[in-house]
Amino acid sequence: AARARWLVSGEALVYAVSTFPFYVDLCDGRYTGFFNSGLNTGWVRVFRILNIFRTSEYSAAVNTVWRVLIVNRTILLASLALVLFMILLTATLLFSIATDATLAANGIANLPDAMYLAVLMLTGQALPEGELSTGTKGIVLFTSFFSVPIFAVPAAMLTWGFEGEAARLASREQRRFERRQAFGASPEAACDSSDDDDSDFEDYLRTAAGVDEGEREEQAEQALRFLAAEGAAA
């Protein structure tokens, strides 16, 4: 039963995909192509990297990234929408205002080509080549002042999210240290019930929201006093 469950797990799927090209080569008799169809399966071999690093041993790191993305999903999706809007706006301005010579110098024949150059401009990787007209220079200035900061929003939010995770881990280590100081090196005393995924997620939410242990204890005391007052009144 356990082996059957493992066969349908994600780890088993990674193993199957990573070994897929080997069996294709055995059937095909060659090391390139896919049954003489021209389809190359060599890129699938990259999944063997996951086998080397044993993805199950890195589940804590994956869970950390997942928590940060889930908690900050709203602002990340909003910033992604702004990024897509600025790409489309910049590309449209470039394609509409730039001269024919500038478009030819940058290999822009349609709007998708302009979007490629817009992404390079928004990320600070490149500028339009050739002799720039006044309108094109205005687009470049507009991009520098307004578009680039919008591209920095997702990176800033991810940085803030990982800072919150670091604060949560520091708080957990502090609690462990205080328990060891209070109860000694007993394994039962050193055991932390917040090691599971659900408690880790709750701790991260409290850290991101700025709720500390003192506030939690005060809220619990207020709830107990309220319940005691209600019981006395009844």
From TrEMBL:
Residues 180-220 are annotated as: Disordered. Residues 16-163 form the Ion transport domain. Keywords: Membrane, Transmembrane, Transmembrane helix. GO terms for cellular component: membrane. The chain crosses the membrane at residues 75-95, 107-127, 139-162. Its main location: membrane. This is Ion transport domain-containing protein. It comes from Calcidiscus leptoporus.
